[in-house]
Amino acid sequence: MKLRAITVNNVRRFTDPVAIDAIDDGLNLLCAPNEHGKSTLFDAIQALFFKPHGSRDKEVTALRPHAGGSPEVSVTVETEAGRFTLFKRWLGKAAATVHRDGTLIAQADEAEAWIAELLGGDGGGPSGLIWVRQGMTELTGGTTKEQKLALEARRDLMTSVGEEVEQMTGGRRMDMALARCRAELDDLATGKNRNPRKGGPWRAALDRVETLTERRDSLAATAEALHAALAERKRARRDLHAWEAPEAVEERRARLEAAEAAHTAAKRHAEDVAAEAQKLQTARLTAETARTRLNTLRETLAEHDEAARLLAAAEQEAAQARATAETARAARDAAEGDLATAQEDLTEAETQRAAALRAQAARDGADRRRALTARIAEAEKTRSAMEDAAAAARQGPDDTALRRLETLATAHATTKAAREATATQVIARYAPGQDGAISLGDRALPEGTATALPRATQLTIAGIGTLEVRPGEGQHDDTSVEAAAQALRNALESLDVETLEAARAAGETRVAAEHRAGEARAVLASLAPDGIDQLRAALAAIPQPEDRAEAPDPEAAEQALSAARQAFDAARIAHQTAADHFADARNDATRSDTALTSLQDRLARAETARARLGDSAEETLAAELHQAETALRAAETRHADKARGAPDPASTEAALNRATSVERNAREEITRLKPLLARLDERIGRSSGEAVEERLEETRQELEIAEAALARIAHEKDVLIRLEAALEAARTEARERYFSPIARELKPLLHLLWPEAELTWGDSSLLPDALVRDGREEPITILSGGTQEQVALLVRLAFARLLAATGRTAPVILDDALVFTDDDRIERMFDALHRQAGDLQIIVLSCRQRAFRGLGGNSLHLTPVPAAKAAE
Amino acid sequence: MTLRFIHASDLHIGRKFANIPQPEDGNIRGRLMEARHGAIARLTEVAQSRDAGHVLLAGDTFDTATPSPAVIRQALAAMGEAGGVTWWLLPGNHDNLRDAEPLWEAIRRDAPANVVALTEADPQPLGDVATLLPAPVAFRAGASDPTEPLVRMESEAGRMRVGLAHGGVTDFTGSGEAIAPDRDRSARLDYLALGDWHGRLPVSDRVHYCGSPEQDRFKHGRRGVCLAVTLEGPGAPPQVEEVETGAFLWTERPLALHPRQDAAQALATILPETGRRDVLLRVRANGWAGLSDQADLRHAADRVAPDFAHFELLTDELGTQYDAGDLDEIDRAGALRLAAESLQEAAQSETLSHQDRQVAGDALARLYAYVREDAQ
């Protein structure tokens, strides 16, 4: 739908018809100062679309001019179906019409329905969503009350946006459905866990099922008890009949009598058998006694004979043993004599061998004495030579003194040579035949040889006289040479030699003596390592030889000793053997004597026993035994005859007990069953009289219905929970789904003002609740009035595009929608309006003529309508 | 030599019908109970009208082993008032000999002269032309063919032999034992009157289930009957006449639906036109229907239900066919549409359990109902 023209008449200040024509598709601007009727036009359009022509409410009456009259509004719209003119008049001669190309197509209520359909059906429409009525003029201006009203106007603006979002996400019908669902669910269940509500139908159904279940179980138990009682009564009747039947009674009586008679007879017979048994026992004892006496006699006689026989043998054996012992004793004594002789021979042999050994030792001592004496003499000779050499070795300079002397001689020669090298020299060159003519002292100067003249020297020149040579100052110091010479002389004197060569010869002599002394010392050490005195002591220790003319041969003495030892050992073994034989023989003799004594006692006892038996003859006793055994056999026969065929008293007693107990049981059972039957009759009669099965069946059927009802209610609860969940989930999803295109539409608009800005939406309010700029989230409510109205307008423009996308194209009408926006922002808002005007019709009403000059778009003007045209 | 008698069974007198929902302003349970008691009078009328001197009740005369004294006494009194008719009462499984011993004691003690309790398997003379061979049920669930003793049961020569038994010829109870279908031949019977099966069922020429004279379930789809039997003589084929005795019709009718069909109209076509007050009707809808069709169907069912003694609509087998129109009716877009689509998807899911699909489908139907009611 797009607006093409608006005409108003008798609306507030417009007491004469005025119109706006030529409204374009895109952006349209009606700019006029205040009090020129822009808001009146807005209200008139609003009334045309939303106020029924029959309405007389305050918004309608507010349209009437002061002078009165019936407000009239006519709007020409263009839809896909064509161009239509909508007209309404309120209050007097109220009317509503819809014309198409001058043809009336609807009027009155039909026209109202046509208009409602044009707006998109039931309620809503573009008004609240994208039409902006004039707000307050200034946020900071006016009174406190005006500011408050301005604040509320902005809040209304935002709320209306939210409501529209809510409408798109389900709106009132969603609320209705959720409310009904929750209300019905609340009737059934309560709490987060959806427990049955107390007093609710679910609880009631549960209680009903529980009650009926309990009743059914109780009745079933009663019925079961009734069945059990019936079965028990049947058994009891059968049992009582069995006990009380006459034939049964007679049978029990006869059986009891027979048992009693049988048991009495059995007892009597048993007594007879017992008497015979007693007699049999007596006969057995008599025979046993006779047998015992005869056996005793026979055994006593046999013992006496045996004892006598054994005693005789034992006496013989003892005599033999004693003889054997005496023989052994004699043998032992002879062996003892042999042993003593052998002992004596052994002692003698040992004495001889000792004497032989001593003689051998004396011979060995004499040899050793001679050797030691010779050795001592050699040692003493060697010691003397050693002492001589040692004395010689102490003469002459030792090695140290010689080295010192050599050192001093070298020093003297060196000093002297050095002195001569620096001294004045003279070299004689003799004329021929004059050799040796020049002499120094007594010595002629050699030809061509330099002779040092260390001090003033007088040379004698033969034939000439003397020549005194005086060295220069400083060339006359012979102190060092003299000192070296003196030191050398002193050293020679200390060694008591005159020359160095003599000293060297004396040194060599000393070294040779030292060598000799060393050799003699080594020889002495081998001859007498511990000294000659020790050798002399060893010599003194050797005993002097005995003076024995004869000494046995040691080897013969050793052989004799060995033979004597062997003879002694043989004698000792023979003695031991003889002693052992004697001990054995003596023991045998002792045992034989002991056995003999024992048999003598045995024989004495046998004789005593025999004496005790008196004079009874064996034949007599044998006859008595025979008689007793005959009597026993007779008793056994009588007892066996009596016992054979006797009734078993235990069996007859058991039979009697059984018959007695059967009779007793019969009496007890009859006594028990009769009252039991009475009780069962009473119980069965009561239960059957109460129709327990009938009530049980009825209860089962009721329970069946109650369980079905419970299942239905439980299902109902599940259905409601499922529906509630589906509705809530859908609403959440719808929010996301619908916010997504809004956000998409809003994004470029917001970015015209604030790059990268986003809006966030409240979950419950469905309002934009915060503006996110530069990562900061600012609640809408704390934004400035200008920013809030800018956000609101952009949101409306976005919704308008969304509406258009759903086929519900509607013009955006903005009546002073930007009153708080500054010049900079308003330019960008204009850009936003132009951007959206590409496919939306936007009608801007503004009093800010200067500020809106830059908006552009199609300019609209209010023009009076000629009377003639108005009349049409 | 002609014997005429009425063969009936399974009166289940005393049944409370507590499993039938009873509206607060209704008395269907009382009416059904009364109808069962009324069967005695109707059987009397049939007997008297057919000149039949005997009514053979083949078990389960009473619904439970211990009916209330009033139920027993009033039933016996009603039988006693049937002039010229002898009632032969056989214990069935519901009123078997063991559990219902007090009942049978009461009957033997209090019954009028024309009521005979057949608590023993002993032959009984039916007038002077026939012998009744009863096979009383000893236990609620037996493990043997109760008619087996009939083979050895003696009867006076020249008389017709009429067997009376209770139990399944086929194995209704799963007990593993059943009455031999050829028992009439093995026991030399001229007629075997059977009870236990609540529907009318001829087994052979001489073996018949009469069914209950007053139905109590939707299974059989017709009013209860009794059999008026005429035996012309030993060996003659029995003449069996079905006589309707039921006061109430229990019936279940399928309602096959398909999408975009007028479900309410379809329901109307299967409803009986007359006598609805005495009809218990179960409509078992199947096939497919849209949300609006289902809502219309339920609405139509709610509207018509009070016409009937009892009415129930089963939709377990009715699938929901979702189409865009249904969902558009909820909302063309927005959150409600999303919710509807998610529920539809869950209801048609192949991975969810049947229970979850059912819940989702019902939730969608509920949402549809909310929106539709809100629109109205």
TrEMBL record, chain A:
GO terms for molecular function: ATP hydrolysis activity; exonuclease activity. InterPro entries: P-loop_NTPase, Rad50/SbcC_AAA. Keywords: Coiled coil, Exonuclease, Hydrolase, Nuclease. Residues 6-59 form the Rad50/SbcC-type AAA domain. Pfam families: AAA_23. Residues 280-389, 689-733 form a coiled coil. One of its GO terms (biological process) is double-strand break repair. Residues 640-663 are annotated as: Disordered. This is DNA repair exonuclease SbcCD ATPase subunit.
TrEMBL record, chain B:
InterPro entries: Calcineurin-like_PHP (IPR004843), DNA_Repair-Maintenance_Comp (IPR050535), Metallo-depent_PP-like (IPR029052), UCP033093_metalloPase (IPR014577). It comes from the Bacteria. Pfam families: Metallophos (PF00149). GO terms for molecular function: exonuclease activity. Residues 3-117 form the Calcineurin-like phosphoesterase domain. The keyword Nuclease applies. Keywords: Exonuclease, Hydrolase, Nuclease. It comes from Marinovum algicola. This is DNA repair exonuclease SbcCD nuclease subunit. The keyword Nucleotide-binding does not apply. Gene3D superfamilies: 3.60.21.10.
